[in-house]
Amino acid sequence: MLPPEEGPRSRGREWLLRLSLLGIAVLIAAGLGEFVMRLAVDMPLRMPQPQIRYDEHPVRRFTIRPSQSSFTFEARATIGPDGTRSNGGAPRTGARVRLIALGDSFTFGKGVEDDQTCPARMEQTLVGAGVDARVVNGGTISYSVAEEMHWLRNEGLGYRPQWVVHGLYWNDYFVNEPPKPGEASVLTPDGYFIWDDSQPRRGWRRIVGWLAERSALAFVAKQAVKTAMQRASGEAVVEREYVNREHRLEAGELKPIFWEPVQQFYRDLLAMGAEHGFRVFVIVFPVQGIVEQPQPTAHPYPVYIRAMLDSLGLPYLDGHAAFESAGLGGKDFLPYNRHLAASGYEAVCRAAATRLAALMRPESDSTPNP
What is the secondary structure of 127-180 as a DSSP string? Predict the structure, then answer.
């Protein structure tokens, strides 16, 4: 029989052994779960700080803060003193042909490096084709066509463009009205969007964010908790409606009446071009859920947009056709936010620039759209 004093000590060692074995089992299970989850789930892009910051604007609500070196997701974004994004390297200020790329986050290049954005790819392609060109990146994340028009009229015309290239995305029909006077600010004191995940995390949110960027298990758990909290509180109603409309669009639902403000935008753009001496070109950015379907160019959305642009006499490049020609698909979009990856911009915007280079030749004025 053991001495009385050794009984508790023995039981303590036994409990310690059991806890150790349990800890090892949990670690092995977590490791296997992480491995399996990594095979099934794409990891989100990391968001080093600072992300792009904005300043208040009396008409457009917000504008990109000038002279900042920031990130858009993991990609570096250099903003010049004029508030426009760099194409990588020094601006080609003395170029003979001046173009403005007008649009929202797709034109800005959310999630890709300075030299991988659509304006940068267009400039590279035009220069490579022998056109002494500069393309100004006039894209701003979350701008509508109303805000884009205001920027062009009040700031963009100062570049004396010969071409304005508008990047059209499906959500231009979802939000296309100008901001109402007196609307509440959409920016935090630090200059981030109040609805965005890009603002710096503090306290426990910083720890959760760090884990979710590095662990597939933590990321899935965070998304599940976030969704449950939004449903319980009724938050993110606009976000859910946005997603619902996108899914309905991918299913083929079109309501032409919603596109009337966009058509008016293009009429106004053409009238401005006639007054100020520039021509207009449109890039129809592809929708991820459409390019993943068979025969994306036959989908009702690109068919309708091509007919609309043809009726207005606007030259354009259909990004769905460019994706199809290049053999690209859903993998050429960034994970979880449906913006183009660098490979997507490469295909769409180089094809657009090739088309533009042809239009710049006088004999190509009557060249039909592809």
Answer: HHTT--EEEEEEE-TT--HHHHHHHHHHTGGGG--SEEEEEE-GGGGTS-SPPP
